[in-house]
Amino acid sequence: MCGIFGLISKECLDIGEIALEGIKSLEYRGYDSCGIAFQNGGKLTVKKVSGKINDMQKKFNLETLSGHLAIAHTRWATHGAPTERNSHPHTDCTGDIALVHNGIIENFMELKDELKSKGHIFKSETDTEILPHLIEDFLKEGFNFKEAVIRTLKRCKGAYGIAVCYTKEPDVIIVARKESPIVIGIEEGKISYCASDIPAILPHTRSCYILEDDELAILQPGKAEFYNIQNSVNKIDKKPEYINWSVDDAKKNGYEHFMLKEIFEEPTAIRNTLKIEMKDFQIFAKHLLSADHIYITAAGTSYYAALAGKYMINKFLGKYIQGIECSEFQNNLIGALEKNSVILAVSQSGETADTIEAIRWAKKTQNDIKILSITNVVGSSLTRYSDHYIVTRAGPEIGVASTKTYVTQVIVLALIALEIAKLKKAISKEEIQKYYDALISTPDIIENFLDKNIHSVKNLVRNLEKNINYFFLARGISIATAKEGGLKLKEVACRFIEGYSAAHAKHGPISLVRKGFPIIFIAPPDETYERLVGNVMEFKARGGYIISVVSESDKKVTELSNVTIRIPQPSNKYFNLLTPITFIPALQLLAYYAALEHGLDPDKPLNLAKTVTVH
Ligand code: F6R
């Protein structure tokens, strides 16, 4: 996710100040590097930094900049580290075209090779840079600016929200959208604005045009024309929408909190993560297949993602993977870390001090060790200390409690597991395809669940309001879901929870159960189901208030439960393996509404920080 802002005006304005304010209000979409291009008297100037918008402001004194056109960008790196070179805007060979982009051009490698063979020189490692060069090529062929942009976009696979300017047409910004948002605001007859999201436009106008997929707009001072990219001859008649949100509400896209917004972003985060190139998973799979010893390490939510992933990978790998919390990594392995080991480290921020320390210690102790990592942040410390890394595509997560990053971490681990199954021929091709099909349908399952279940989860929370203690119990792979779901309730709603094995809970924890004690059972119909039914009965017999999370067609656990949350998914082994992904939104929602019920801010849990950089 990145933020785009642009403006074009009849009069000369303080464009530097306006553009900076614009991208600052989009900083929640990304903040690892930024840049601006502005035009003055037919000359295009581009300024960029690796760092925050304030750094750019100080470095270039941009508040003093006046002019009539600017496009600006705040980046969340996906292709290429957050360096100055990789920051947007990107330009063509002539320096006449500047372009900012949010999204991913999936076929950029082929297009880059083709452009290089025609003599184009590239300055960055980004997918974006192919866009101004392609436009340059079409302009050279004699197409006008609009047609050159359209032809360029038609050659691209993937997602884009773009804004582009060209010195030979100084009174125009072209914007276009496919899967990445673009909004347009018009101050009639004076100024036109474009942005990735509404908050950037709101200080200037409440009348916004929202571009749909495959639409393109030509912005001129105080007016806009709209076209369809696939059929660009005739203009489209588009009506503006009146936005009455506050700027703060708009950043949360109308959601009351970032946590809720980020839960609802999970389907998109998963779809984007599913687009990561297969070769990355193959590299991980090959290392895991050839290793003698494998460890997986992480902290908090990432550790629970690791536990779910470890179970998935073990299933096909036929070798045991040891999961160790990062803070105890060294204590467990001192004197025992052997040659030909692989460490899989998981961290959304890529900066957790204990995770970094664990892998640095391991590298120092056994120099042939391989570090493979999964993170959400390109250029983070974890990526620098790793031999190979995969970056999830959840986009920036603002809520302190991890939600969408968790599901994308588990998706990546599931894809590694399937790659191992393929390489090892552990199961038939048909079976592998069935697992992939199930994986691809996880975003739809979550979307469907979120669409229909908000009210039932809210009601459940109201009934539970007085309880302070909870058990979250499960067996097999779902123990990870129980622990993660419980952690969410603990951190955002300040309830005491124990996330535990349902079988093991009778060796102690069960002594706490009295009439009405809430116990949440995670009960997919997998190989552990029949025994879990027995555990549910044990807790029910002692007066427990049973809440179960089950698949759509469940009967036995449902009959034993006081309340059931049903996840709309088929009951078969392919979907059962993926329940750490599809069942978790229910528990995240439960935690979210419980926080509200107790008057707490779910985005800022007490005593917690988003990134923990102390030991
Ligand atoms: C819980 C949460 C934390 C983090 C933990 C590790 O919602 O967010 O438990 O998961 O601090 O952080 P990362 O994944 O950045 O290493």
Task: Quickly describe the structure.
The protein has 615 residues and is of the alpha/beta class.
Q: Explain this structure to me?
A:
The protein has 615 residues and is an alpha/beta fold. It folds into 3 domains: 3-247, Glutamine Phosphoribosylpyrophosphate, subunit 1, domain 1; 255-426, Glucose-6-phosphate isomerase like protein, domain 1 (Rossmann fold); 446-601, Glucose-6-phosphate isomerase like protein, domain 1 (Rossmann fold, 3-Layer(aba) Sandwich). 38% of the residues lie in helices and 23% in strands. α8 (266-273) packs antiparallel against α16, α10 packs parallel to α14 (404-424) and α10 packs antiparallel against α17 (478-493). The protein is globular. The mean pLDDT is 94. It binds fructose -6-phosphate (F6R). Fructose -6-phosphate binds at residues 299-302, 347-349, 352, 355, 401-402, 487, 491, 611-612.
